[in-house]
Amino acid sequence: MDNRSNFFKVSALSAAILGVIALPVQASSESAGGDQYVEAINDFISDSTLSGTFIVDTRSRTRTSGGPSGQDGDRWSRLDYSAYNAIVDFSSGYHDDWLGADVGAYFSGDLYNNSKQNDGTGEYLCNEISTCNNLDWGAGDGQQLKFYKAALKFKAGENVDGRFGMIQASGNGTIGNVWSFVPGTYRGAEVNANFGDWKATYFLADQYTAPWLLSEDDYAPALWSDTSWSLTHSLGLQGDATDNLFLQFGVGQTTNVVYATGVDWGNNKVKGYHDSVDTMGYKAYARYKLNESMSLAYDFYGVDDDVKYDGLGFMTGLSFNANFGKFSWMSDLSYASSNNDADVNPRMIYTYGMTNGNYSQWWDALSDWNKSGEASWYNRISYNQGNGWNYYLGFGYGTGGQDSSNSDVVGGDWNYKSEYAVNGTIEYSLLSGALKGTTLRLHGTILERDEFDGAASADETDIRFQVIVPYNFI
């Protein structure tokens, strides 16, 4: 059976389920629990929300190295697919004004897939939209239904709240979420305490899965991502220091992180493992409102990792944002550095997709702009037409990364002197009606790099069309 048939069956089934769930419900006043019980249950139900989002993501991403032809510099489509997510989120009210529950799940799959295939297994390259067998392969092969959120939540008065179960981080501290169209899933707990204009947050977890993976066991099969850890936790403080100044600080730790030393690709196995290490994360963020239309922000995210950085690796940057009527302008400066000149990943576990940090700058421009020593500048001009149409055009340039052909430089996947990217988006959103918020978005990026002598070509292009349909049932 092809993916299109599966898609229509899943859509029909999910619509039927949602139709039943969305029926208005109230507790009977004749309940044996009495009037107070009925009132508590009705508050639980009446304060609840049930929402859904249906998404189709169609993408073609090219690269100039690693193609099937084996010729460096030949452009080829590494990702070429159309995938869907059908997302359902339920958030209850609070029973007796203190206890509630949140549940979220999604169906996913591929409508078509012409991406790179694994020569040995025939699996498609993971596109990170449909569930995959591991971080590298098996797009659309995974179980189609994933519960990404299932948590109990509580309140203690007006100033303390928390959640535990399968949750996401709120981002106050050093721990964030890996995102697709849904966030990844931590098994853990979060507690928030409010003190006037300030909020303190403690978050801890002992397990994580990226949005497109079903189990923490799905990391090791890709070999390069074979990493284990015991506990990640973070303490954060954020609030308004003045009417114009917002501050956020965080410190965190991940214990017993064990990285693979390397991969023997000829024998398809990990060569060995480093001794376990405890990593530390540090976050500092400040945003100052210059006036009603302009703001300036500073962000720092650093990680002390003796294996990956031989000490400290960090990213830091300045962000300027301004609004001029229907036009807006953002200008970001960013800098990355590490003790051993390895590429910097602003999260407490270096391995991709295995927890995340909360560095604020992201330009949707293919590159991570994270070579050690690289200074980058990105500018974007946006226009909101006011009738549902939105546009933006951006340009980024980075230079200063170290040559990893030098044995003293760890480097990363690519080795280049400088890079630049041009990206843009055309978007239309419905402003009214039952499908208000439905969005059609076309996004494109051209990324060019000036490689060091002898390095593999690392240019990329990306074109992406997305249809996003939100709906609130209750």
From TrEMBL:
It comes from the Bacteria. Residues 1-27 form the signal peptide. InterPro entries: Porin_dom_sf (IPR023614). Gene3D superfamilies: Porin. Keywords: Signal. This is Porin.
